[in-house]
Amino acid sequence: MSAVPDLESRVVDEHHQALKLWLRLLACTARIEGVIRNRLRGEFETTLPRFDLMAQLERHPDGLAMGELSQRLMVTGGNVTGITDQLEAEGLVQRLVPPDDRRSTLVKLTPAGRRQFRKMATTHEGWIVELLDGWSVEEKAQVQALLGILKLHLAQVDPPTAPVRRRGKRA
Amino acid sequence: MSAVPDLESRVVDEHHQALKLWLRLLACTARIEGVIRNRLRGEFETTLPRFDLMAQLERHPDGLAMGELSQRLMVTGGNVTGITDQLEAEGLVQRLVPPDDRRSTLVKLTPAGRRQFRKMATTHEGWIVELLDGWSVEEKAQVQALLGILKLHLAQVDPPTAPVRRRGKRA
DNA sequence: TATTGTTATACTCTATAACTATA
DNA sequence: TATAGTTATAGAGTATAACAATA
To answer: Which of A53, A104, B66, B158 is deepest in the core (most CB within 10 A)?
Structure first.
C-alpha cells in the first residue's frame, strides 16, 4: 500500500472528526439554550432576546442608543425597536432623547427593570451552574481555554458582523 | 478571616466561571451556526431545518414516517408537514403510503434529492472543517471527550424531549 | 445629503389545537 | 376510542426597505 491511500483516509477521518464534533457541540449548546428559553418563559414570562437586551442595559447604566443596542445584539434596528417597545410598555426600560442630538434615542433600565433583571440574572446564573455542573472546575477551565482558541480562529475565518444598515436611496 | 468568606467567594467565582464559559460557548456555536445558515442560503437556497430533514432521510433509505421525523428532529408534526411539503414540491422527497397502515406516510429522498443532499453534505462538511480548523486534531479530540461528559450530565439534568403530542379531545 | 430611529411588510421556524382518515 | 398526519392559526424572531425627523 502506498502512502496516498493512507493520506486520503486520514483526511477523510479528520473531516469526519470535525463533523462529529460539530454535531455534538451543536447538540449540547442547543439543549442548554432550550432549557434556558423554557425556564425564562415559565418563570419570568420573558425571552432570550429580551433578557439579552436588558443585560446590555445593565452593563451600561447611562443608557445605550438604539443603534448601539442593534450592534451589540447583532440584530437590525427594527428588531430593537420592537423589543424596546415591549419592555417600555411593561415599565422595564425607558427611552430618553439626548438634547444634543435629537435624532437619537437613549434606552435605560428603569429602577423596576433593574430590580427585575437582577432577579432574573441571579436565577439564570444558577441554571447555568447547574447545567454545566457535569464539568469540574478544571474541565471548565480547559473548555474555556479551548474555546478561546476557536474564537480567535473564527474571527479570522469569517469576521462577525451585525447585519449591515443599508442607507441612501439607491436600489 | 474565617473560612466562610473564602468559601463564599470561591462559590461566587465558580458561578462566574460557569457563566463566562456559557457565554463563550454560546458565542462560538452561534457564530458557526450563523455562517452555516448564511452559506446554505447563499449557495443552495436552503435552510438548516430542511438540511436536517434531508440528512435524516439520507440515513434511512427506506424512508421515515412523519412521526419518526418529528421525533428525530425534535419538532412538532405540523412543522414536518410544512417542510416536507416544500421539499416535495421541489422534487427532493416523495411521500408514500404504506399499504399495511394507510394512516401513515413514509417520506423518502428522491434520486434527485439524494444527489442534491450529497452535494450539500460534502460542501457542508468542508465548511465545518474550515470553521473548526482553529483546533488541532488533538484539541478536537479533547473537546469531543469533554462534550461527551457534558452530554451525559445534561441527559440527567433535564432529559431531552421532542415536543409532546397531546391527543384525545379533552381540554 | 447623511444619520437615527420607526414603521410596514414578509418570511422562517416554531407550537397548539381542531380536524380528517384510518385503525 | 386511538393513532397518523394535515390544516389553520398564532407568535417569536429575523431581515429589508421606505419613511420622518433631525443634523
So the answer is: A53
